[in-house]
Amino acid sequence: MAHYAVTGAAGGIGAALCRMLRADGHKVTGFDLAAGDGVYPLDLSDPASIAAVAGAHGPFDGLCNNAGLPPRAGNAAQVLVVNFLGTRAFTEAMLHQMAPGASVVNVASRAGQFWREGAAQAARLAALTQSDDLAAFAEAEGIDATRAYNLSKEALILWTFANSERLAAQGLRINAVSPAAVDTAILGDFTQAFGGKVERNLARAGRAGAPEEIAAVAAFLLSPRSSWIKGADIPVDGGMGAYALSDAMGLRADFGPS
Asked: Which of 38, 53, 145, 202 has its Cα between 20 and 30 A from that of 242?
């Protein structure tokens, strides 16, 4: 039996992952703003909250960083803090509780797919901490809530890449999972933020993803069965990425240009 930590455990993908891991006989310690049975309170925007839980409850065989905020009008600074800076701080604080061979899984997003183009801005974000004035940063960078969400996920993916060798040297693994639209309570926030793009992608994919479908990939990456996967960002998007890439390259089914 392994022991896993999951943030954002009270709903959506996090709750599905907790159910899945427990059904497989594992112990799960959850963290969320909404505390409950087996779920401890955690506010990723508050360094004191992170410090209060990061030294307890372990050791862990894996950590899934699933907690995050969707883009909503006026919440750009909070999105940057919770989705990236707080997640990074929590992970770093938890590393001393990780058992040999443990795995860290970051739930990023298809919204972070343009991390190459956003790398310079992501680096400027990464130079900050939770205690910095993120509202001022967002204003100076011209970042609204939608861009903040994309940037937070770009930064999370880049941070995953950047730390894969460092953690491997410590006997740990780190990977990212990038889902597209998932049928959770916050799907409407993404539809509002990204507009017709979400509707078009959903039409091509046929439906939104189920939380359990994302959780299954996260559970695999947490487990020793994925031991040779290190520093990867795995899309779980119902084919949306492949469709978009094929369109951009003008590919036909025989791989030739149109």
From this structure: 145
pLDDT in tens, 72-107: 999 999 999 999 999 999 999 999 999 999 999 999
Give the DSSP letter string of the chain.
Answer: --EEEEESTTSHHHHHHHHHHHHTT-EEEEEESS-BTTEEE--TT-HHHHHHHHTSS--EEEEEE-------TT-HHHHHIIIIIIHHHHHHHHGGGEEEEEEEEEE--GGGTTTTTTHHHHHHHHT--TTS-HHHHHHHHT--HHHHHHHHHHHHHHHHHHHHHHHHHTT-EEEEEEE-SB-STTHHHHHHHHTHHHHHHHHHHSSPBPHHHHHHHHHHHHSGGGTT--S-EEEESTTHHHHHHHHHHTB-TTS-B-
* Other C-beta atoms lying within 10 Å of the C-beta of residue 51: 12
pLDDT tens per residue across span 108-144: 999 999 999 999 999 999 999 999 999 999 999 999 9
pTM, two decimals, is: 0.95
Distance, CA of 209 to CA of 180 (rounded, Å):
7
Contacts for 143 with CB less than 8 Å, ≥ 6 apart: 76, 80, 137, 151
pLDDT of residue 150 exceeding 80, the answer is yes
Active site residues per annotation: 149
Place of tokens 């799960």: 28
Q: 179-225: per-residue pLDDT in tens? A: 998 888 888 888 888 888 888 988 989 998 999 999 999 999 999 99
